[in-house]
Design brief:
It contains 4 helices and 3 strands, in the order βββαααα. It has about 140 residues and is mainly alpha-helical. Strands 2-1-3 form a 3-stranded antiparallel sheet. α2 crosses α3 and α3 packs across α4. The longest helix has about 35 residues. The termini are far apart.
Length: about 140
């Protein structure tokens, strides 16, 4: 029979998370180890005090509209946090596309004045959303 070892996730600080096999002995290390269930419990406790950027009422409205009924506000906050992360990632990617577009325009022109302000365009957003598998098309009257 194969020897199966349980894995745990060791967190030394917020930037280093690694998964290692659990040892059978009791090690009195300064590092704290968490089981996945402990991490979930800790996350749920932290969500009680957290106010997401997307309000709970807005998230509940769209969840109910899609057919998902949940009375636990912590679940709604987890979904709201995931939506906030998604929107943040899309905007950061769109900003990168905007920077690349501006650098190509500056390289093509020999202008002494360089404008460092960035503006989010629909084209940048479309490129960013395509990376996530979402297709956006402009209406024909905007083309």
């Amino acid at each position: 029979m194969a020897d199966r070892t349980q894995n745990h996730i060791e967190i030394t600080d917020a930037s280093q998370i690694r998964e290692e096999p659990m040892s059978d002995g009791d090690d009195n290390n300064e590092q704290q180890t968490y089981q996945p269930a402990d991490q979930l419990t800790e996350l749920m406790l932290q969500l009680g005090d957290y106010t997401p950027t997307i309000p709970d009422t807005v998230c509940c409205h769209y969840l109910n509209k899609s057919g998902f009924n949940c009375s636990d506000p912590r679940i709604v906050r987890v979904i709201s946090l995931a939506a906030q992360k998604f929107v943040s990632d899309v905007v950061v990617d769109a900003m990168q596309h905007c920077k690349m577009r501006n650098s190509q325009q500056i390289a093509g022109k020999k202008v002494a004045r360089i404008d460092k302000r960035l503006s989010l365009t629909t084209e940048d957003l479309i490129l960013s959303l395509n990376e996530y598998g979402l297709t956006v098309r402009k209406p024909p009257y905007f083309v």
